Amino acid sequence: MMRCPNCNSKDIGKIGSHQFYCWGCFIELTVNGEKMSVYQVEEDGTLSSLDDLFFEDEAAHNHVHEQLNG
């Protein structure tokens, strides 16, 4: 079961082949193999990267990847 790396919600919807949306905190996640990116959806529909908040180091990236996969 996938969980949001931001709010830990299980309420994740698939919006594309590698794209997901969290209904708990309204962020978009892109997963491509081992790499994940996190985005805030702005009022005009553009995406602002939040990767610098989540992936400061490799340990943080591994923790998020583990949450997504189990």
Strand order of the largest sheet: 1-2-3-4-5
Oligomer state of the chains in this structure: single chain
- First and last CA, distance: 6 Å
Overall shape: globular
Largest sheet, strands/sense/barrel: 5 strands, antiparallel
Number of domains: 1
Low-confidence stretches: none
> Could you tell me the radius of gyration in angstroms?
11 Å
Helix content: 10-25%
Number of helical segments? 2
Instruction: Give me the strand/helix succession.
Output: EEEEEHH
Give the total of beta strands.
5
What portion of the residues fall into strands of 2 or more residues?
25-35%
Structural class: alpha+beta
Structure description:
- The chain is α+β, with helices and mostly antiparallel strands.
- It has one domain.
- 21% of the residues lie in helices and 33% in strands.
- The protein is built from 2 helices and 5 strands.
- The chain has helices spanning 51-54, 58-68; strands at 12-14, 19-22, 27-32, 35-41, 47-49.
- A 5-stranded antiparallel beta sheet has the order 1-2-3-4-5.
- Strand 3 (27-32) and strand 4 (35-41) form a beta hairpin.
- The radius of gyration is 11 Å and the shape is globular.
- It starts with 11 loop residues before the first strand and ends with a helix.
